[in-house]
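Data deposition worksheet. Section B asks for the primary sequence of the deposited chain exactly as it was used as input, without tags or linkers unless they were present during the calculation. Section C holds the resulting structure in token form. Section D is free text for depositor observations; keep each observation to a single sentence. Incomplete worksheets are returned to the depositor.
Section A, Depositor: J.P.
Section B:
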Amino acid sequence: MKLQSLSDRQLLQQTQQLVQKEREILSEILQHLKEVERRKLYSDLDYSSLFEYCLRELKYSEAQAGRRLQALKLIRELPQVEEQIASGALNLTHICQAQSFFKHLQKAGGKGFCKDESNDPGQSALSKEAKLQVLNEMANKSSREAQALLVAKTAQAGLSPQLPPERERVLSEEYCEVRLILNQELRQRLEEVKSLLGPKALGMSLAELIGVMAELSLESLRDKKFGKRRSGTRESRARSGDVESNRTENPTAPEKLCVKFGVDQKPQSRAKVKLESQSQLRSPSQVGSQSHLKAQSQPTGEFLADLPPQKKKPRSISKSQKWKIWQRDEGRCEQCGSHKNLQVDHQMPVALGGRADLENLRLLCGNCNMRQGIKSFGLGRMRRSI
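Section C:
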């Protein structure tokens, strides 16, 4: 039936039914997104996060994806909100306004509201009851009315007005516009950094200054997490003969012992050199009274040299290994290409016999690492980590 042929009453009824169905569909979509996030399924599609999955796979705009993820986050904490969304008492704009208000109070220590004592003692947070009370007061109000209510509550709590949130807008493939608000203390710190950089920083814009600071921070943070560059250069020096020349000029401890005590300078284990040097330092009486007894109880140098090297723990990853993995994988997640929250992962899990070898190690972001764990061990065993 064409819309033009509907009566006024029928048109209004069908419109209302469609809007109610839209709310129900939104509730179902949020439930599906919640399960996709729990299973980390977007990692199988080479997306680094649920937000990226919503943008590229589901074709939401950034604002649409952001509002749905905000609602998803609140539903995970307060399941009662889902019923209010389905009934239309709360919409996605309400939820974004409330989340921004809660974050503002969180930074201020939750003044004027009761704290959630179930959380860690070092973290102050609004109680779930307080959040539900705010949401109930916002229900069935327009966006402007809800915003006015939150502004009044901010003033009632004795807090400064809430500042506009940070915004990011893509200008081109190479550039994006970021809007942020700095306090005076941070602004002075940036000026101090600029002065410490010397004359080259006189004409720097704020974006160029942030770029220099990011480069300096990246270098130190990479060294801290994945080891320093020099940790992986010993093998290359050994191949080029530098190590052998250094040993000739500066003999190591075993070689010094060989020279000092006249022992044959053929390659020997440290244990053998130590035993031989100790035996030469003893007096004849000590050798006569103790050597026969200790010879039967102590292993010889040859025996110690033949012992197999101690096996490294399968979870132990050295800094040189981390640096090699970082260089090989170019500082990106092997699955989705993300630079965020990178972790060294065992392709074959340690629990299934995997070792800490370069061939079995790779860089994964936190989400892709979690997804691999779910695929290897199932949702049941990974529930605590999720």
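Section D:
The chain is about 55% helix and 5% strand.
Residues 199 and 383 are 55 Å apart (CA to CA).
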